[in-house]
């Protein structure tokens, strides 16, 4: 099987990797870069636990090949705080999830945060309905979603915006 | 430390695990790194629901470069099980469901294991299969376990060898036959629930390492690290001390990660490649059929009341479709038997509860453990009885619901609870009998309105269903700066067990909540014993153990300082991390002294030493029940009760149901963390709502046809109600920490029947069978339109 | 039986020209699969339905992701344009809101960042959400082969479940939508098992517009999804609407004709009986909603 030399910027770090054709972006992040915050819940684009940002837009990383990420900028949950300038401080969204008890088992949380972040980037003042629709691809079995929706709304009300992806 | 919370019990402090979980730092089993020596496994599964395994040929698989071992039933002659040891690790001569593992392949990569598994050739000879539990219970049904009589079984489980009945629980109270003629209303019905799956967002995973020395370590996503150690050690004849189970955070359990399911395969496969960690992950598709599911149920239930609405008699037969192996499921049928009336005081009861083998995936524990299943029928019949005698359904429940001190169906005296207060709270919150108009949103202007609105109520009870003597233990250790490590064996599944442990320890020690750390991951080598994180027993049982450990540590501290100050320990207290004397008003910070002790005068020696508190809890008062009548002094430790009311609308053009609001109230005894309870109530209501629309489906040969998230839909963010009103009452539990009892499962038990009752209110149509698919509702409406 | 973890091995080739794609298809025949978003392809590979040796990524070909509107020629959508790129494109929103609505109904936001209209249509799935919209907008599918391209009207493109007019060795490069009829309004109604995000159990696209040549003064185009081996137009229903003045009775009759056009089956997502009934309900609902907008 063909191998490919790729260059990917992940959470601000430039990574040079040799990847086989069938390696998914999800497998690359988890197995090659040990960025295990991004979760594998279905490998079918249904549960959203593997959602990451590619050039600022959320995608299911199980549905994208690592080789397709060549030259792109990837942000995972581990890099979310960094987008707001200080990687040692929780981002407003993460903070709101803690405040509102929007976390239970925590397995869906990284993907939910990425989807919610992307929503606030494209729509800083979403309605409850818009939040629900933006999160329809992120399954959660614990919380019943309401606290997640409240937390996103609360983060939006704080109105802090990210610095956007940081290109090297 | 920025925050400083004194006396945290009763306060909605933040979860101890929240920051880890929002930063991606929280470690789940698939995140643990094992390095380049790791091997990967894949299971070979039966394509037949019932068949004889004639021959297995692994030679082609073994030729694949990178394959290290293939293990089959020939290599592992072992059975495993919790209450009934009926499950072979690998199928030997017989497979009993589609998806049953017949072999496992170990290779240097998951990809190679997957490819090689396809090359394992298995010859089968098909046998007749049976899927319906009532059919399976008949004498002429295909027999799944001819050796049932030889299986080891717990003393309180009663299988019927020669049949497919793995458990038959009998409840006999009063005389139903003489009561029926006195009834003014009798409602009888058959209710069916399909198998459903837990769908934790984290699939099952396990990694096992079998050292050449015989030491074995298993990393799992488990609600039951200690039970896994016990069951696997027994099954594979490993000394308990040689088997270590490590369980990091669990990404959702709901009962599906209780006991042992796929984890044992990692262990037997690791035995074949000693010295290498072997990783086995379930795909989402395998999760649906290859782990465990909630059992199916067919319930034949008949209940009667007099003209004033007093319940007089109930006769019921519950046939749980337990799937191919009932090692855990037998106790679900038992629990359904000893609680068969639901939360009602009924003087005459005849109940039979059966667990029945069927050629389906393994039925096992799921949130509610038999209670959602039986309440589905009971709570609909209660509405019908109320209607027949012209009573309000809420009033009917107030009249008949179980109360403190009642002698309940098993002869046990009901511990203190207040179910009436729960009913009052939910009827108030939902605006009972003041239902709003259906919405007209999305309708074209010139068509007739097609939405119907309805309200429904349902109540519940549930006892922790477990052996009579499941224990908890805890250790509380101080660090030099007076921060505290709490060691427990209870697992964090999202419900908040670690947060509760920290709150209980802080409260009982007299230190701020923020000073407490919970030692994780749970590791049977280092963590103190906990039976299982199931049955909503942790806040109560673990809470008691942590409280006892903290009190032990506190006593050590007080005795030391009392000795130092020459005072009576009874005059001292620990407050906000300081020892204070109410008599002398002296103060002594805990810092350093909890590790180094205190110096004698002029440093003439030292007293004290590192403070380590130990605590344990085990209920000692549960008795066995008479096998013929189900009567006994104390069937269970206690019950948690609650009520739910639902407001919904149905689109009569499509059959789609939109749940607008759910109001829930439970008697929690004492809310250790009110916001965590609300989080359970919300999540549970949505889980319960979702479960009303879920079903695992099979073709006529027993093959799953919707084993994926594409075709097994769970509630998403757009499906959930706009409002969930949560509330609780606090009637203290005699032996709960500060009176607390569990509520994690209860919050979804009666949601489905509350929805069914609301649909009936909206449409005047009853649905006895789950799921409540839009199609089923629409076709029922069509049938009525044609008739009408 | 059950999907495997991970993808089976294959060679990934990132094609840069259409000629290269066609050459690779010739060279590898059925062993090659074209990939755009991969959201269907990868799932089918995990399920074991297909096992390509070569996966040719065609989304980087020139123009493959372009969405271009021209007041004369209409809209050209590159086959590898994602659902989100289509749904949020200002020209699509302004002139082809029905297409935006259909694209926006696919799965979830993050999947729509990968899923492409070309992939959606090429699969020949009767539940493809952009199929009914493409039919009523009378899109033309642009197929490239060595030596040139041909256009196939959408109505002739879908041949059966998984079968399209795409020939071996051809590549879908774009969909061309003519300027919609003046004054038109459209609606895509999709019924799934959950409120949004599901595959369609039944879907109906309706496009209506005033037309002086029709006896009723209006024409409606109706297309159905998930109720036949292919997405299809309900032409007899359309005739009823052209011949008779709009209103409840005519809409009900048209809905009946739509039901007759459908030939649904029982499957895990719904029964034939339910699907037929939903074609009736959704068609009628769709006609009313479009009529409201026209009025």
Summarize the structure.
Helix content of chain B is 24%, strand content 25%.
Features:
heterotrimer, A: 168 residues, alpha+beta, Ubiquitin-like (UB roll), DNA polymerase, domain 1, five-stranded mixed sheet, 5 helices, 16% strand, globular, C: 295 residues, five-stranded antiparallel sheet, four-stranded antiparallel sheet, 14 strands, 24% strand
Q: Low-confidence parts of chain A, pLDDT < 50 over ≥5 residues?
A: none
User: Approximately what portion of the residues of chain A adopt beta-strand conformation?
Assistant: 15-25%
Percentage of residues assigned to helices of chain A: 25-40%
Output the CATH topology of the largest domain in chain A.
DNA polymerase, domain 1
Shape of chain B: globular
CATH class label of the largest domain in chain A: Mainly Alpha
Mean pLDDT reading of chain A: 94
What profile does the largest beta sheet of chain A have?
5 strands, mixed
CATH architecture title of the largest domain in chain A: Orthogonal Bundle
Helix content of chain B: 10-25%
Counting DSSP H or I runs of 4 or more residues, the number of helices of chain A is 5
Major β-sheet annotation of chain B: 8 strands, mixed
Q: What is the 3D shape of chain A?
A: globular
In percent terms, what proportion of residues of chain B is strand?
15-25%
Q: What is the H level of CATH, i.e. the homologous superfamily of the largest domain in chain A?
A: [2Fe-2S]-binding domain
Protein described:
The complex is a heterotrimer of chains A (about 170), B (about 800) and C (about 300). By secondary structure, chain A is an alpha+beta fold. Helix content of chain A is about 30%, strand content about 15%. Chain A is built from five helices and five strands. The longest helix of chain A is centred in the last third of the chain and has 14 residues, at about 110-120. The N and C termini of chain A lie far apart (about 30 Å). Chain B is globular. Chain B has an eight-stranded mixed sheet, sandwiched between helices. Helices cover about 35% and strands about 25% of the residues of chain C. In chain C, strands 4-5-10-6-7 form a five-stranded antiparallel sheet. In chain C, a hairpin with a 2-residue loop joins strand 8 (about 160) and strand 9 (about 165). The longest helix of chain C is centred in the last third of the chain and has 23 residues, at about 270-295. Chains in contact: A-B, A-C, B-C. The interface of B and C includes residues 45, 697, 706 and 716 of B.
């Amino acid at each position: 099987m063909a191998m490919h030399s790729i260059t990917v910027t992940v959470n601000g770090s430039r990574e040079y990797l040799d990847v086989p054709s069938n390696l998914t972006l999800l497998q690359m992040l988890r197995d090659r870069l040990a960025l295990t915050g991004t979760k594998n819940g279905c490998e079918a684009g249904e549960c959203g636990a593997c959602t990451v940002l590619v050039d600022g837009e959320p995608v299911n990383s199980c549905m994208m090949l690592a080789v397709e990420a060549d030259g792109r900028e990837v942000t995972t949950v581990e890099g979310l705080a960094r987008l707001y300038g200080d990687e040692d401080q929780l981002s407003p969204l993460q903070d709101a999830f803690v405040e509102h008890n929007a976390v239970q088992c925590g397995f869906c949380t990284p993907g939910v945060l990425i989807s919610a972040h992307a929503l606030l980037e494209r729509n800083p003042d979403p309605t409850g309905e818009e939040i629900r629709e933006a999160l329809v691809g992120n399954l959660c079995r614990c919380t019943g979603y309401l606290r997640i929706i409240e937390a996103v709304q609360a983060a939006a009300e704080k109105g802090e915006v990210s610095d956007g992806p940081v290109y090297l | 430390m920025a925050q400083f919370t004194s006396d945290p019990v009763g306060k909605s402090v933040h979860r101890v695990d929240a920051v880890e979980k929002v930063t991606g730092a929280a470690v789940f089993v698939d995140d643990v790194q094992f390095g380049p020596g790791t091997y990967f496994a894949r299971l070979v599964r039966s394509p037949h629901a019932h068949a004889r395994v004639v021959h297995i040929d692994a030679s082609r698989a073994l030729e694949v470069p990178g394959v290290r071992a293939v293990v089959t039933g020939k290599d592992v002659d072992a059975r495993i099980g919790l209450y009934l040891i009926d499950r072979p690790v690998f199928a030997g001569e017989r497979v009993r469901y589609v998806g049953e593992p017949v072999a496992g392949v170990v290779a240097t990569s998951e990809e190679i294991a997957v490819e090689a598994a396809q090359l394992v050739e298995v010859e089968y000879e098909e046998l007749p299969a049976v899927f319906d539990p009532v059919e399976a219970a008949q004498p002429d049904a295909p027999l799944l376990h001819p050796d049932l009589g030889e299986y080891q079984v717990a003393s309180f489980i009663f299988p019927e060898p020669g049949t497919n009945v793995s458990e038959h629980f009998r409840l006999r109270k009063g005389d139903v036959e003489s009561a029926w003629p006195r009834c003014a209303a009798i409602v009888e019905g058959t209710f069916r629930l399909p198998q459903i799956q837990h769908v934790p967002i984290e699939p099952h995973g396990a990694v096992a390492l079998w050292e050449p020395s015989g030491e074995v370590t298993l990393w799992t996503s488990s609600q039951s690290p200690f039970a896994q150690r016990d069951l696997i050690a027994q099954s594979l004849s490993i000394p308990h001390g040689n088997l270590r189970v490590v369980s990091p955070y669990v990404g959702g359990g709901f009962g599906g990660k209780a006991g042992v399911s796929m984890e044992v395969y990692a262990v037997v496969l690791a035995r074949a490649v000693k010295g290498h960690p072997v990783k086995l992950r379930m795909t989402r598709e395998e999760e649906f059929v290859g782990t465990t599911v909630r059992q199916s149920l067919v319930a034949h239930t008949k209940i009667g009341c007099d003209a004033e609405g007093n319940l007089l008699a109930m006769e019921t037969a519950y046939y749980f479709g337990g799937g191919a192996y009932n090692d855990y499921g037998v106790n679900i049928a038992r629990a359904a038997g000893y609680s068969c009336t639901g939360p009602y005081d009924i003087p005459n009861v005849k109940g039979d509860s059966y667990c029945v083998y069927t050629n389906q995936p393994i039925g096992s524990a799921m949130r509610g453990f038999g209670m959602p299943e039986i309440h589905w029928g009971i709570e609909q019949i209660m509405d019908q009885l109320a209607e027949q005698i012209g009573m309000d359904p809420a009033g009917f429940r107030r009249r008949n619901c179980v109360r403190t001190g009642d002698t309940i169906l098993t002869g046990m005296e009901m511990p203190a609870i207040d179910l009436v207060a729960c009913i009052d709270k939910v009827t108030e919150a939902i605006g009972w009998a003041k239902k709003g108009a259906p919405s007209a949103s999305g309708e074209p202007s010139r068509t007739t309105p097609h939405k119907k609105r309805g309200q429904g109520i349902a109540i519940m009870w549930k006892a922790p269903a477990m052996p009579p003597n499941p224990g908890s233990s805890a250790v509380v250790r101080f660090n030099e700066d007076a921060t505290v490590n709490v060691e427990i064996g209870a697992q964090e599944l999202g419900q908040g067990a670690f947060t509760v442990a920290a709150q209980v320890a802080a409260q009982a020690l007299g230190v701020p909540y923020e000073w407490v750390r919970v030692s994780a991951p749970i590791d049977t080598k280092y963590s103190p014993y906990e039976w299982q994180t199931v049955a909503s027993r942790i806040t109560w049982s673990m809470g008691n153990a942590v409280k006892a450990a903290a009190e032990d540590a506190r006593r050590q501290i007080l005795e030391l300082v009392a000795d130092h100050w020459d005072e009576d320990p009874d005059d001292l207290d620990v407050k906000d991390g300081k020892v204070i004397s109410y008599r002398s008003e002296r103060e002594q910070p805990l810092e350093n002294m909890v590790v180094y002790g205190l110096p004698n005068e002029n440093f003439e020696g030292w007293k004290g030493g590192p403070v380590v508190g130990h605590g344990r809890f085990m209920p000692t008062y549960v008795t066995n029940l008479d096998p013929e009548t189900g009567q006994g002094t104390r069937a269970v430790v206690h019950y948690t009760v609650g009520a739910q009311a639902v407001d919904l609308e149905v689109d009569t053009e499509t059959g789609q149901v939109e749940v607008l609001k759910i109001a829930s109230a439970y008697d929690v005894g004492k809310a250790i963390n009110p916001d965590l309870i609300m989080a359970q109530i919300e999540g549970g209501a949505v889980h319960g709502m979702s479960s009303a629309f879920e079903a695992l489906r099979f073709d006529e040969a027993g093959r799953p046809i919707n084993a994926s998230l594409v075709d097994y839909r769970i509630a998403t963010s757009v499906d959930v109600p706009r409002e969930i009103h949560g509330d609780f009452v606090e009637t203290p539990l005699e032996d709960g920490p500060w009176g607390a009892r569990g509520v994690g499962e209860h919050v979804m038990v009666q949601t489905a029947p509350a929805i069914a009752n609301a649909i009936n209110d909206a449409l005047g149509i009853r649905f006895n069978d789950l799921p409540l698919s839009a199609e089923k509702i629409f076709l029922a409406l069509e049938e009525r339109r044609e008739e009408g | 039986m059950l999907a495997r973890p991970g993808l089976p091995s294959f060679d990934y080739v990132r094609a840069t020209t259409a000629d290269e794609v066609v050459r690779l298809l010739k060279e590898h025949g059925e062993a090659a699969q074209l990939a755009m978003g991969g959201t269907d392809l990868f799932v089918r590979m995990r399920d074991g339905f297909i096992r390509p040796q070569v996966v040719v990524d065609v989304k980087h070909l020139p123009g493959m992701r372009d969405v271009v509107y021209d007041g004369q020629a209409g809209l050209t959508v590159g086959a590898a344009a994602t659902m989100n790129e289509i749904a949020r494109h200002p020209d699509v929103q302004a002139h082809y809101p029905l297409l935006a609505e259909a694209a926006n109904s696919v799965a979830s936001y993050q999947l729509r960042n990968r899923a492409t209209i070309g992939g959606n249509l090429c699969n020949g799935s009767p539940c493809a959400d952009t199929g009914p919209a493409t039919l009523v907008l009378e899109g033309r599918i642009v197929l490239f082969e060595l030596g040139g391209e041909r256009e196939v009207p959408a109505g002739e493109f879908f041949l059966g479940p998984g079968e399209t007019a795409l020939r071996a060795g051809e590549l879908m490069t774009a969909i061309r939508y003519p300027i919609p009829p003046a004054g038109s309004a459209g609606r895509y109604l999709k019924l799934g098992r959950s409120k949004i995000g599901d595959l369609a159990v039944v879907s109906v696209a309706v496009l209506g517009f005033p037309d002086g040549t029709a006896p009723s003064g209006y024409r409606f185009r109706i297309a159905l999804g998930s109720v036949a081996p292919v997405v299809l137009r309900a032409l007899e229903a359309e005739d009823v609407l052209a011949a008779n003045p709009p209103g409840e009775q005519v809409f009900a009759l048209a809905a009946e004709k739509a039901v007759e056009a459908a030939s649904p089956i029982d499957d895990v997502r719904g029964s034939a009986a339910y699907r037929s009934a939903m074609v009736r309900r959704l068609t009628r609902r769709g006609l009313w909603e479009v009529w409201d907008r026209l009025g």
